Amino acid sequence: MDLGDVPNDQTWPRNAWYVAFMADEVVDRPLARTICGERMVFFRGQNGEVSALDDFCPHRGAPLSLGFVRDGALVCGYHGLAVDCRGKVSGMPGQRVGGFPPARRYPTMERYGFIWVWPGNAEAADAALLRHLEWAESPQWAYGGGYYHIDCDYRLMIDNLMDLTHETYVHANSIGQKEIDEAPVKTRATEDEVVTSRFMDNVVAPPFWQMALRGAGLPDQDRVDRWQICRFGLPSHVMIEVGVALQGHGGYDADDTAKASSIVVDFITPETETSHHYFWGMARRFAVDDAALTDTIREGQGKIFGEDLEMLERQQANLSRHPDRKLLKLNIDAGGVRSRMMIERAIMAESGSVASSDRAGLDMAAI
Amino acid sequence: MDLGDVPNDQTWPRNAWYVAFMADEVVDRPLARTICGERMVFFRGQNGEVSALDDFCPHRGAPLSLGFVRDGALVCGYHGLAVDCRGKVSGMPGQRVGGFPPARRYPTMERYGFIWVWPGNAEAADAALLRHLEWAESPQWAYGGGYYHIDCDYRLMIDNLMDLTHETYVHANSIGQKEIDEAPVKTRATEDEVVTSRFMDNVVAPPFWQMALRGAGLPDQDRVDRWQICRFGLPSHVMIEVGVALQGHGGYDADDTAKASSIVVDFITPETETSHHYFWGMARRFAVDDAALTDTIREGQGKIFGEDLEMLERQQANLSRHPDRKLLKLNIDAGGVRSRMMIERAIMAESGSVASSDRAGLDMAAI
Amino acid sequence: MDLGDVPNDQTWPRNAWYVAFMADEVVDRPLARTICGERMVFFRGQNGEVSALDDFCPHRGAPLSLGFVRDGALVCGYHGLAVDCRGKVSGMPGQRVGGFPPARRYPTMERYGFIWVWPGNAEAADAALLRHLEWAESPQWAYGGGYYHIDCDYRLMIDNLMDLTHETYVHANSIGQKEIDEAPVKTRATEDEVVTSRFMDNVVAPPFWQMALRGAGLPDQDRVDRWQICRFGLPSHVMIEVGVALQGHGGYDADDTAKASSIVVDFITPETETSHHYFWGMARRFAVDDAALTDTIREGQGKIFGEDLEMLERQQANLSRHPDRKLLKLNIDAGGVRSRMMIERAIMAESGSVASSDRAGLDMAAI
User: Fold this and answer.
1) Are residues A315 and B56, on separate chains, in Cβ contact within 8 Å?
2) I need a labelling partner for B17 at 20 to 30 A (CA). Which of A102, A149, B108, B141 fits?
3) CA angle in degrees (0–180, nearest 5) for A264-A269-A270
4) Is A70 on the interface with C (CB under 8 A)?
C-alpha cells in the first residue's frame, strides 16, 4: 500500500469509516473532496454504486473530477482515459491499456443516508466495523441535517461538542441558558465511547426547546428537566442525546408523552490538519411525520452551528499563531481530552506503536 | 517577562508608547489589533479605562476579542472565563480560578485623543515617557485625522515622510510642486529627533495651500514663501511643520496674520515586519472653530495619503522580491537614514548591545 | 551579467526571444510584466521604440512601472529619478547622477505585431534569431488573436497543444469530434522543430469548421478531409496548421478554392515556474478582408481556449500536490515529450552542460 503522501505525524486514524457526503449529494457528475489529506473523486458507476478514487488521472495528472461518467466508468475530461469503479483503467481511445497503472481506490459504502469512505488500507476495510445507527433506519425517528466546511483541526470540533458549556455563551439566544454552565458535568470513558453528561432540573426551556415542546404537542412555558448526554466514538462522531421533560415526570427517563427528545448527530471528517467537513443534523422521536418541522429544525440548527464556526476558525488561527502554548484542561474539558486520548490510541495502534499511557499522557499535555 | 514569540531580529523598539487606536474607536465592544507583532485585545473596563491584553483566552486559546465586557471584566465568548483589566482571571462558571494563568497585560494610556500601548516590558512603562503634544490640548489648535492600514514595513513610511521630495511626483495634483524637488534639503539630528527642513521662497501656492489661505482669510493667488520641517521622534512618529506665508512677511517666522500653517501629524505603528498602522492628521492654527474646514482638510489629506499607499505597498513588494539589493542613500534620503539609525540604537539599547557606530553603520548599509 | 535572482533549476531557456505583449497594448503608459521570473517594465521612449527594464528604481526600489514617460525617459513616480531607454540614469532633480547604477535593460524588438523580449544575456541578443513569420506580413493572410494569463507551468500548455486528442473531450462542442482520438498521430523531430500530425479523412466538419467553410464561400454540410499539423519551436511557440478540404480534392494538398485552412498561433511565455502568458490567435488564408469574420473567429477561439484554462490550472494544482509522481508518456504524448527534450537541451546548452541523451532521458522521465 502506497502511503507516500501521508505525513508521519498524522492526527487522525486512517483505517476507519468517515462520512464523505450526504448520499443525495452524489448524483450524475463526479465530485472531488479531500478526506484525511487525500484528494478523492466520488462518482456513481454501475447500478448507481458510489466509488471513490484518487482524483489524479494516471495519464497526465488531470483531476478525474473534471471528467464524466459513461457506461459506469469515469472518463477523464482531458484525453479520455476511462477507469472503472475499482480504479482499473478500462480503456482509452487508440491505446492498449493493459499495462496502465490504476488509480488508487478507496473503499466506500452507502448507508444511513451517507456515503462513507475508508481512507486507509483497503484490505482492512470491513463494512461490519460501521456502527449501527438506529435512528437512521427506524420509522420511529425523523432526521434532517446539513453540511459545513470549517477551517479548523477536526479535534477542536470534538472539544466543542464534548463540552456544551459553550452553549451559554456562543448560543445565548437559542439553546444557551445560564443553568448549563452552573450544572456539574460528568465524564466517563468505556472501551468504545467517551460520555459527558449534564442534567439541569427544574429550569425554563430555552427558545429551541420551547419550539420542540410545541412540536411534540406539549406546553412550552412549563418548567422542565433538561439533559445533554454527549457520546464520542471513533473515528470522529459525537452523538448527543438532548431533551426536556415536563418537570416532575422523571427527566431523562420520563415517558415519551411527557418529553421532547432527540439526538444531535455530528460526523466530523478531517480534510487537512487545519480543516474538516462537518455533517450535522438532528434525529428526533417526536412529530416524526412533520416534514415542515424537520425543515424548521434544520434551519434553526444550521444557524446555531454557524455560530460555532467563527469561534472555531478563529480559535484555530490563534493556536496556529502560538503552536507551543499550553492550554488548560478543566473538568469541563474532560470529554474532549478523553476523546483525543482515544483517537491517539487508535493512531498508535495503526502505526504499530504501543499505546503506553505515558506516551498518551505526554501527547495530551500538548493539546 | 515572556518574550517567547518575539523574533530575534526585531525591527522596532518594544519599550515605547505606540498609538493603537483613535480614542473614539474603542467603545463598548472589545477590539483586536496586532501591534509590534503581538495580537492584542483592547476594551474599556471599570470607569471606561482602556486595557490591552493578549488576545488569547488562557482556557482554550479562543480570541478574547470575540467576547464581551461585563461589570468591567472581559468575558470570553466561548466558555465564559472572565479576565479583569490587568489580565487576571476573575471568574469562570463552576471553576475555582485562583491558580489560572493570567492573560498577558500590555500597559495602556488614553491621552491626546489616542489610545497608547506599550508592547514591551510592562514594568518599564512610564507615562512620563510620552512626549507632550501641545496641539492636542490647546484651544489655539484644531485637529482632524484618520487611519490607514498599510502593507509595508513601517520604516518605509518614515522614509516617505522624512523626504517630501516625493510630493512633486506622488501628489502632483494637490500639494506637489516643481519647486519642492528643486529646493535643497537640510538634515540634522539631535539627541531625540531628526529634522529635515526645506524652504521654498516666492512660489505659487499649490491647490491645498490655496484652500488653507482662503480658510485663514488670506488671498490665495499671491506669491508665498513655503516651508516643510519634518521631525522624526522615537518610537515612530513624524510631525511636519508645514505652511505658507504671504511673500515678504518673514516666511516661517511671519506673524500669524500673514500665514497659514499647520502640523502634519503621523503616528506609524508597526503591525508586522511588512505592515503597519498609519494614523495621520493635521493640527492647524487657523480657523480653529471651523468644523467644516476640519472635515474638508481631513478629506483632502485622506486622498493625498491614499496616493502614498499604493506606492509604498508596491515598493514593499519589490523589496520583498529582492531582499538583498542595496538601495541608494542620497542627500534627500538622509532624514530616513538617520531616523532608522535612531531606531536601530533604541533596539540595541533594549537588547543590551552596545550601539557601536560600526554596527549601526553596517546595519544601515542594508536598508 | 548579474543572474543573482535566477534559480539554478530554471525550466526555460533565457537566451531567446519571447513575446511579452501584443504591440498595441504598449502605448503611452509604462506597463509591468514578469517574464521568465524577471519583473520588467515596458515603455515606449524616443521615436515610440519599446524598451524593457528591471521594474525596480535604483534609488529606493519603487516600481518604475508606477512612473511616467517624459521626453523619452521613464521617470520614477516616487522621487523623479529618470532612466533612458537603455536603463542609464539620465537625471534626477537636485542630484548628480553620473555614478548611479543603471536599471538592468532587457533587449526588445517590435515585430509581427508583438513586442519581443530577451530575458537572458543582453550581449547575445540577435534580431536575426527571431524566426520569420510569413502570415504576419503577407496580405494573403488575416490575423486575429488574444491573451490569457494561465496559472500553470508553460510546458503543460505545450503538452496541450502538441496533442490535440484533448479536443474530443475539452472542446466537444466546438472543434472536438470523435474521429480525432481515433485517428493515429505521428510525431517527428528535426533540428529545430517537433512536428505532430494527424489526418482525418471523410468526416463531418465540426461547428467551428462549418463556420470557416461558410466564411470561405464553401458548402458547410459536405464531408471533408481534416488535418492538424502541430509545430513546436524554441523557445516556446506552437504553430498548428489546421484545415478542412471538401472530400476528394486532395486534403491538405487541395487547391485553395476547395479548402478552408489556417494556422493556430500560440506563443507561450513563462512567467513563473507555475504560470505563463498565453498569446493565442489564428492566421487564415480565406476571406482575409472580412474584419467581422476576424472578430467572430477571435471570439470563438477565445471561448475554446478558455476551456483549456480550467483544465490546465487544475492539472497544475494536482501536479504541485504530488511533485514526485510519474506520469505516463503515450504515443499521443510524444509531441510534448520531444518538445520538452528540445527545451531541456537548450537550457543545458546555455549552462554549458553537455546535453547528453542520458541526462535528457532521465529528466524526461520526471515530467
Assistant:
1) no
2) B141
3) 140
4) no
